[in-house]
Amino acid sequence: MYLIPESRALFIQSCIDYLRRYDMNGISIRHSFHRKPFFKKYFPILLQDIMDAFQKESERTGRTRLLLYVFLYNYKENIDEDYDVPAIFRLADIVIVDTKYYSFFPLIGNWTHRHQSRLYGNTTDDELNMICKKLNDYQRLKGRKFRYPDNCPFYFYDNDRYLVYYDDAISLISKVRYAKEMGLAGVNIWDVSDDDMAGECGDGPFPLLHHVSQECRKP
Questions:
Q1: What is the pLDDT of residues 129-147, one digit of tens each?
Q2: CA distance 59 to 100
Q3: What is the DSSP string of the chain?
Q4: Taking the domains of the chain in order of start, what are their residue ranges?
Q5: For the chain, N or C: smaller number of CB within 10 Å?
Q6: pTM of the model
Q7: How far is residue 148's CA from residue 163's CA, in Å, rounded to a whole number?
């Protein structure tokens, strides 16, 4: 699809039809790692085609222009090989950065286990100098469990040793405040299925999502 203009046009028109049919405000494009040079070249072309089509559709119909969100991974080697970062930030309305790979990735030959969406990561400089106002921090309403069979001095489960990571209202509010302090565009919730949908924990339905929403609305 990347390489053929007619295929891109067909894909984009089907997106517009779907978004308008279900009264959605935009589309999120996730570009997975390919490590092929032509993907780095043609992905911005796809984004440009999408933005052009969204603008023309808005002018023709008088409706608010659809938004283009771009979802990026954060592993630097793949960013360098697959992403034309300046072009992506120039074309997208909102850029969403997936933070889960800050928590585990075979960076030094083995899998590093950390919180699934930790607030502070490595202290290395931001070599790509991304534009903060377009960034959305990617928050995950879910936990992660790792097993440490030999070298863990603590345990969360009898007869075995586990370290359990999770987010709660306090950590999520801290992350929203951090996003504001950093001048980010907002936070993105990828999965709400692990929130208390039925309100069984005494804080109403979707308490975590509610806390995030309330904190986002504060000045």
A1: 444 555 665 555 544 444 5
A2: 38
A3: -TT-HHHHHHHHHHHHHHHHHTT--EEEEE------HHHHHHHHHHHHHHHHHHHHHHHHH-PPPPEEEEEE---HHHHHHH--HHHHHHH-SEEEEE-GGGT---TTSSPPP--TT-S-------TT---GGGEEEEE----EEEE-TTT-S--SBTTB-EEEE---HHHHHHHHHHHHHTT-SEEEE---TTS-TT-TTSS-SSHHHHHHHHHHH--
A4: 1-76, 99-219
A5: C
A6: 0.72
A7: 8
